[in-house]
Amino acid sequence: MTPPFDDTIRDQAQLWAMRLHDAAFVDWDGFTAWLEADASHSAAYDAAVARDAGIVELLETAPRPVMPAAQPVTPRVTRRVWLGGAMAAAVAGMIGYATLRDTASPYVIETAPGVHRTLTLADGSSVALNGGTRIVLDHAAPRRATLERGEALFTIRHNERDPFEVNVGGTRLVDAGTVFNLIRDAGATRVSVSEGAVIFAPDTDSVRLDAGQALSAVDGARPVRSQAEVSGVGAWQSGQLVYSNAPLALVATDLSRNLGKRVATTTDAATMRFTGIINLDQKAADPIAPIAPLLGVQAERNGRGWTLTRADRAHR
Question: Which of 23, 163, 239, 287 has its CA 20 to 30 A from that of 259?
């Protein structure tokens, strides 16, 4: 079957796939813009990732070929040959990373903004990753994880002899038969529990959170405990964001993570507060338009996303 994209798009997708495997990758805006530039780009990227996985599997199962002695050849360098060499190097880089990724301990799983992914761990526990999330797991320590940034919903099979631990912002979080949501961004940690309990910083603050409780902790400050609506814990998976007296700066960060587009606030809008439920329609041409009035702001669209401005000052 002929793919719904040409060779140029295929090569672009392969290069993006290689770049996203790099732990230092930061050009999420560029990647998102490329995906949205043409409907065929998403299919091309999925195909590139699938080829990556297929090549790695082939390398792991196929016998190593015996290569004949090289014969001296005078090369003719053309643009096509150069592009082919660049792509070969890119694919080689992808193969090397994928092989390392599948066997290394520890290893990194990362999602692009606006992209969700669910991981099933060796013990049957699961971790659902929101967009713009980076988590470190370890084959040698399957009951340990480090959330470096972003948001994750953990559904953990409790084991009293070997409790599951998450390191976040240099602090340990220990489960006690738990479903909990964890967010790490801008030097702060947020955790909310819908089932069981977790212990935050057992070696220092030792704060126990039961179902229906939440905690926020800014680096260097004492954690603050609050109440959480159980049904709202991890509701981002179904396109809902639930808040109680949250500053709009925090809401904007969450919107950016879920939509895959930058949502910023002006200085005076950042401190406004919001209580309620936001229903996201990620397929809408302008998903922020119906949300802005709910927040009491106006949304100004720009090349990278939106800026939220106080409605009473937008035209002054």
Answer: 23
The string of pLDDT tens digits covering residues 170-219 is 999 999 878 999 999 989 999 999 999 999 999 998 999 999 999 999 99
pLDDT band at 2 (very low <50, low <70, confident <90, very high): low
- Where b means 16+ CB within 10 Å and e means fewer, 34-71 reads bbeeeeebeebbebbbebbeebbeeeeeeeeeeeeeee
**β-strand partners of 134:** 110, 149
Please say whether the structural domain 239-310 has been given the CATH code 3.55.50.30: yes
By the 10 Å C-beta count (0-12 exposed, 13-18 middle, 19+ buried), 283 is classed as exposed
Per-residue pLDDT at 48 exceeds 80: no
92: its two tokens:
């080689």
CA atoms within 13 A on the CB side of 3: 18
Angle among Cα 139, 192, 137 to the nearest 5 degrees reads 10
CA distance 159 to 157: 7
The distance of Cα 267 from the centroid of its chain, to the nearest Å, equals 26
Going from N- to C-terminal start, the domains of the chain cover: 7-59+81-103, 107-232, 239-310
Distance CA 280, CA 238 (A): 9
What tokens were used for 205?
A: 């603050």
pTM value surpassing 0.85: no
Closest of 131, 182, 134, 135 to residue 155, by C-alpha: 182
User: Of 253 and 30, which is predicted with more confidence?
Assistant: 253
Rounded-to-integer distance, Cα 187 and Cα 133, Å: 15
How far is it, in rounded angstroms, from Cα 91 to Cα 220? 43
Tens digits of residue pLDDT in 245-301: 999 999 999 999 999 999 999 999 999 999 999 999 988 889 999 999 999 999 999
Widest distance between CA atoms in the chain = 77
